[in-house]
Design goal:
Shape: elongated
Order of helices and strands: HHHHHHHHHHHHHHHHHH
Number of helices: 18
Mean pLDDT: 90
Radius of gyration: 25 Å
Helix content: over 70%
Largest sheet: none
Low-confidence stretches: none
Structural class: mainly alpha
Number of strands: 0
Length: 368
């Protein structure tokens, strides 16, 4: 880098002193300064970076102790977490500090001050990506990998998060699981990770088996969408090993896809195209799109084309491609064609004539 980090450190340290002594104190100034401190990660020599970071954290902790008011403390603490998340090299070398930071982030996931939960989830996924192997190995003075502790308490950790924050959390945990080299342990971690969404999924599927009309309930459809989004994010992080989870829900997911698609088509026939804008129908289309995203995400990362072709393509053909051809033109989802593109690119010479036969009508439908 061309950055004169000694001069930059001096300026930032002085600015930090001005926050502490109150001459430049404001939320905006503190946020700006902490963003700048985070942005120079990796620009210093390792020992200089360590010394600088320790100084910054001590100053900010002192500021947090000094300031009165829950909002002030939340802003300062959020900035501390942001900064440490920007310095993975330091975190990787100081396990106890890393664990303390992550546990603090879990506390912030219950904090209602505007933006704090988003910060906690964003910092958590950043740390998970940069330090993932540290979470799946037993560290000094620990009795189990930290990922086990996280999964044991996952319900209590995420109970106050919004759906989009839960999705980020699962992706972060997915990066940790992806770093586990032992496939048997990895499978167990995936099962444990997905236990909560699977419980809700199983309950919805069981209810729908007894009464398919439950799949017209707005809350039920909304839950399905969120569960699938959680699966998508976890799959994107874990990659091919997610096949154990995908296989668990795959056929039921395709059945739900078909039922919701029929519901949408029926609604369009009865009420016209304007019904596609209604919240329930929009939620149903979200479930369909997230189903396709999940399949695409896994196929795109799959390392076994033969397994894809033999186990995942046949059920997909009628459920998705046949459905696409039968749908009202305005109710068709472009994601179907994107998904099939992913399949074709992944399978290459494994593509069967049966797939080609299904694709031909789709191409005709697209050109109309």
């Amino acid at each position: 880098t061309h950055l004169d980090y000694a001069d930059t450190e001096h300026i930032m340290t002085q600015k930090l002193h001005n926050q502490v002594n109150g001459t430049e104190w404001s939320w905006k100034n503190l946020n700006t300064l902490c963003w700048a401190i985070g942005s120079i990660s990796g620009a210093m020599h390792e020992e200089d970076e360590k010394r600088f970071l320790v100084t910054v954290i001590k100053e900010l902790l002192g500021l947090c102790e000094m300031k009165r008011g829950k909002d002030n403390k939340a802003i300062i603490a959020s900035n501390i977490m942001y900064i440490v998340g920007q310095y993975p090299r330091f975190l990787r070398q100081h396990w106890k500090f890393l664990k303390t930071v992550v546990n603090k982030l879990f506390e912030f996931m219950h904090e209602t001050h505007d933006g704090v939960q988003d910060m906690a989830c964003d910092t958590f996924i950043k740390i998970a990506q940069k330090c993932k192997r540290h979470f799946v190995t037993v560290q000094v003075a620990e009795v189990m990998p930290f990922i086990e502790e996280i999964l044991n308490g996952i319900n209590a950790i995420i109970c106050d998060l919004q759906p989009h924050q839960v999705h980020t959390f699962y992706e972060a945990v997915g990066y940790m699981i992806q770093a586990q080299a032992d496939t048997v342990v990895q499978e167990r971690l995936i099962e444990k990770c997905m236990s909560l969404p699977n419980q809700v999924w199983d309950r919805i599927i069981n209810n729908a088996t007894h009464n398919v009309e439950t799949l017209k309930d707005p809350e039920c459809v909304k839950q399905l969408g969120n569960i699938l989004k959680t699966n998508v994010r976890a799959c994107q992080a874990i990659g091919h090993p997610f096949v154990t989870q995908l296989g668990r829900i795959y056929l039921d997911m395709l059945n739900v896809y078909q039922v919701l698609s029929e519901n949408i088509s029926s609604a369009v026939q009865q009420n016209g195209e304007q019904v596609l804008k209604q919240p329930l129908v929009a939620s149903m289309r979200t479930v369909k799109k997230e189903t396709l995203k999940l399949i695409s995400a896994w196929v795109g990362k799959s390392t076994d084309p033969k397994q894809v072709c033999e186990n995942f393509v046949p059920p997909l053909l009628n459920a998705v491609l046949g459905d696409y051809n039968r749908n009202h033109p305005n109710a068709r989802d472009s994601e179907v064609l994107s998904t099939m593109t992913v399949f074709i690119n992944k399978l290459e010479n494994h593509v069967t004539s049966e797939v080609t036969l299904y694709l031909m009508p789709c191409s005709s439908a697209r050109s109309k």
